[in-house]
Amino acid sequence: MSPPPDRRSPPPTPVPVAFSSCVSTICYDEETSELIVLYTNGKEYHYSEVEPDRALSVMQAPSVGEALARNIKGRYAHNVVGG
């Protein structure tokens, strides 16, 4: 008997951030509730337990860097990957 198929969704697609001096790409993983941010310095941060509406508002903000500073940094646990 074969194992059940993997029902995970494909990984989120990073969205390039135009006109930002600190953020290169950003994406949200609905399955893990992680907001994933790749900064221009090469560090990738995974912010945990971010609500979908908050993630979307940050991703759509006129200034993603300012929105991250105001709404995410210091409010959500995070892990740094690479960089």
Strand fraction equals 25-35%
What kind of sheet is the major sheet?
5 strands, antiparallel
Total individual domains? 1
User: How many beta strands in the DSSP annotation?
Assistant: 5
Order of helices and strands: EEEEHHE
Q: What is the overall silhouette?
A: globular
pLDDT below 50 for ≥5 consecutive residues: which ranges?
A: none
Structural class: alpha+beta
- Calculate the terminal CA-CA distance, rounded to whole Å: 43 Å
Helix content: 10-25%
Q: Helix count, per DSSP?
A: 2
Summarize model confidence as the mean pLDDT: 86
Radius of gyration: 14 Å
Order the strands across the largest sheet as they lie in space: 1-2-3-4-5
Write the layout of secondary structure elements.
Elements (H helix, E strand, L loop, with lengths): L14 E2 L6 E7 L4 E6 L4 E4 L4 H8 L4 H8 L6 E4 L2
Antiparallel strand pairs: 1-2, 2-3, 3-4, 4-5
